[in-house]
């Protein structure tokens, strides 16, 4: 199919004696002809990088070319970039890409444009066939990925066999890692945030496929408010590589939503066998959960860097809520009032008992801090010089933070659901 598309481009270029390029709907290069001396810096850069800069892409798309059904001229807002004739490539009512001809002097006549339109129609048939094959392959891979993380071991085992039958990568010598993500938008397949997230994941998957040499691959699965990528590579992904993927995902999602909805990402641990990908998947979404409940972690959470939350989030919600009721802290809450004793205790424990640093963080004199710590010991019955007491109080504070986040989340969900339920009754 790719050779057919290249043949269309080359034939058109020879007939018109002009360089020709075909991009996908996101202005990523699919095929380009040789140059005839009419190229500019943007065309050369596009051929070399297989895409244009995101800002330039937005400026081009802002001219409304995605709605065009006939050829039109595009003035690219970049110094040294020549005007172009853009012919939208469509088939079966779908926009599948754009055919570009550089035309600075508007010398492409009606006959030339008719020839270019015919080439665009043939390209549309080729791209439509590719789309069908791609969608079938994607649906199969997504179904396998879902079964890879199923609770039933037999289903997971069959999914491993199915994935190996696809021969996407060698059966040995590979590293696997899951990148999970979730948005906080309204739940629903047609929600704009869901569409934006799927587009962002597709963009990251495409980028991984283009930059990685075989046998590396990236497979994706999406489901309403969450999605995940499974990375399979001969070498473990570097920190820089993972940061780049996360940045691309977030930037693409933000550009498509622009409504303040945040995309939260979690990076699971490495798995050395595809059979163990389920553990990386669980870790990735526990990291997502940590980022949602504990804002200080940030929008990108990494398994292995979550501190105590890595252990606490494995607890069932009911057990976590019960464990958060630490008697010493309940007593301290009752007696605290507005004296800031709980905040003082948390700062002291977070700073590993460093009095000088804690006093600086709280902006109080050391004598004031010592007085507060003594009062905390009196009220809780704990000795802050004892390791077990410190551990009990510190874990209790972290549990309380998670429990409070759970309760706030539940309250928000009930509040948001209430109008919908009232409407359904009426």
Automatic annotation (TrEMBL):
InterPro entries: CdaR-like_regulators, CdaR_GGDEF, PucR_C-HTH_dom, PucR_C-HTH_sf. It comes from the Bacteria. Residues 341-399 form the PucR C-terminal helix-turn-helix domain. SUPFAM superfamilies: GAF domain-like (SSF55781). Pfam families: GGDEF_2, HTH_30. Coiled coil: none annotated. Residues 196-289 form the CdaR GGDEF-like domain. Belongs to the CdaR family. PANTHER family: CARBOHYDRATE DIACID REGULATOR, CONSERVED PROTEIN. This is CdaR family transcriptional regulator.
